[in-house]
Amino acid sequence: MATISASMVKELRDTTGAGMMDCKTALTETNGNVDEAVDWLRKKGIAKADKKSGRTAAEGLVGVASDDSGAVVVEVNSETDFVARNDAFQELVRNIASAALTTDGSVEALAAASYPGGSKSIEETVKDAVATIGENMNLRRSARLDGTVATYVHNAVADGLGKLGVLVAIETTGDKDAARAIGRQIAMHVAATNPMALDVADLDQAAVERERTIFSEQARASGKPDNIIEKMVEGRLRKFYEEVVLLSQAFVVDSEKTVDQALKAIEKDAGGPIAVTSFVCFRLGEGVEKEESDFAAEVAAAA
């Protein structure tokens, strides 16, 4: 049997909001598997149904750039938030985003691309910047969407630079400016709601089945007949889709409409159909766990 440490209990408690003893019991029942423990608590009705999100720990900046061919978003990480306010680091991220427009959007192609105005690659330039700025840093990821693309940067520290960047690709036979306008609103919506997929078909089926299993066990606890349980599960799945699927979510600009309905409502003014074909959202440090440190202890050790 796995040893259940205090840190494991704390991690599960922070993730689920469940009590300490409930978390310890869940970890014991699942042999120390935190993800399975989250499901165990949810099945017992102890934990919230919110999906576990990656802990935002890394610092640095997200950069966005666009031209007539499309748009790109990049993430460059550093050790501290102070670097994000450094003019040299901001210029580095801005130029990396600009260079990404000349690539297919993959981080491998971007790392090998030439740094604007220089003779070295992006990868080599980042390594040089480590010595100049005095902090470890890395080009973590990048993405590109082609065609008509609306962009949005949240918590911007400079033009095209911030803590969160969103790209939304739009297709229309009508007014492209109108499409970009609604696209930007949808990009802001994505920043606020963090959808898992564009539509139901794009959802990870493993995630859907996981939710279905949890909903089934929750429904069976009610003691109702199987035909009623099936309807309860389908109803909860529809609610799940409304929470995590972009086109099915209530639009933050007008909560009386879904995102899909908001798109259809503007088509007349745009002079043609408008469709969102894809989106990308980069949240700074998403999924990267930063090692916690005791600042007081560090100062004492230095002294």
CATH architecture of one domain: 2-Layer Sandwich
CATH topology title of one domain: Tetrahydropterin Synthase, Chain A
Tell me the overall shape: flat
- Which bin fits the share of residues in helices? 40-55%
- Helix and strand composition category: alpha+beta
Order of helices and strands: HHHEEHHHEEEEHHHHEH
**Using only CA atoms, what is the Rg?**
23 Å
Instruction: Quickly name the level 1 CATH class of one domain.
Output: Alpha Beta
Oligomer: single chain
Number of helix segments? 11
Roughly how many Å apart are the termini?
43 Å
Instruction: For the largest sheet, list the strands in their spatial order.
Output: 3-2-1-5
Beta-strand fraction estimate:
15-25%
How confident is the prediction overall: mean pLDDT? 87
CATH superfamily of one domain: Elongation factor Ts, dimerisation domain
How many β-strand runs?
A: 7
Regions with pLDDT < 50 over 5+ consecutive residues? 49-57
Q: Largest beta sheet, briefly?
A: 4 strands, antiparallel
Description:
By secondary structure, this protein is an alpha+beta fold. Among the domains are: 7-46, Orthogonal Bundle (Helicase, Ruva Protein, domain 3), CATH 1.10.8; 59-196 and 277-283, Elongation factor Ts, dimerisation domain (Tetrahydropterin Synthase, Chain A). Helix content is 45%, strand content 18%. The protein contains 11 helices and 7 strands. The strands form 2 sheets. A 4-stranded antiparallel β-sheet has the order 3-2-1-5. A 3-stranded antiparallel β-sheet has the order 4-6-7. Strand 1 (59-67) and strand 2 form a beta hairpin. Helix 8 (205-220) packs across helix 9. The longest helix has 19 residues, at 226-244. It is flat and about 70 Å long. The protein starts with 5 loop residues before the first helix and ends with a helix. 34% of the residues are buried. The model is unreliable at 49-57 (pLDDT under 50).
